[in-house]
């Protein structure tokens, strides 16, 4: 197998895509469980307000798919670390104890740790010339 070098920006962007796919499927599976068991979704507070907040919070990792490819090194590192940590908090805070959610959330959190560690260890490309 050929050893192909992939830029850090592409790695981070691809990891964000994987996080988002898992988030989407966690929600789809949760809706299916609710429909089959005839349960009513228990959303605290005003549903419209909570969905507006969820829309904003969910868009952070979606936007990171693009930003990971276009931001400068410095802002790319900062945003990937901060949004990665924030998304972990969002996943845990909005989570459930359903088995499918625990599995998917564990994968999401593992991917987010990879994002955070990758961004943290990322060396400044401008400095690499002098190393």
From TrEMBL:
<feature type="transmembrane region" description="Helical">
    <location>
        <begin position="49"/>
        <end position="68"/>
    </location>
</feature>
<dbReference type="Pfam" id="PF19851">
    <property type="entry name" value="DUF6326"/>
</dbReference>
<feature type="transmembrane region" description="Helical">
    <location>
        <begin position="98"/>
        <end position="120"/>
    </location>
</feature>
<keyword id="KW-1133">Transmembrane helix</keyword>
<dbReference type="InterPro" id="IPR046289">
    <property type="entry name" value="DUF6326"/>
</dbReference>
<keyword id="KW-0812">Transmembrane</keyword>
<keyword id="KW-0472">Membrane</keyword>
<protein>
    <submittedName>
        <fullName>DUF6326 family protein</fullName>
    </submittedName>
</protein>
<feature type="transmembrane region" description="Helical">
    <location>
        <begin position="75"/>
        <end position="92"/>
    </location>
</feature>
<feature type="transmembrane region" description="Helical">
    <location>
        <begin position="12"/>
        <end position="37"/>
    </location>
</feature>
């Amino acid at each position: 197998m050929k050893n192909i070098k992939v830029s850090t920006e592409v790695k981070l962007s691809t990891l964000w895509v994987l996080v988002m796919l898992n988030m989407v499927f966690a929600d789809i599976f949760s809706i299916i469980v609710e429909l089959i068991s005839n349960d009513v979704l228990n959303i605290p507070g005003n549903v419209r307000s909570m969905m507006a907040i969820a829309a904003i919070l969910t868009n952070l990792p979606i936007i990171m798919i693009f930003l990971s490819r276009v931001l400068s090194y410095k802002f790319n590192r900062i945003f990937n670390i901060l949004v990665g940590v924030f998304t972990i908090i969002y996943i845990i805070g909005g989570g459930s104890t359903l088995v499918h959610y625990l599995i998917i959330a564990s994968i999401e959190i593992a991917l987010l740790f990879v994002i955070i560690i990758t961004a943290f260890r990322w060396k400044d490309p401008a400095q690499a010339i002098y190393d």
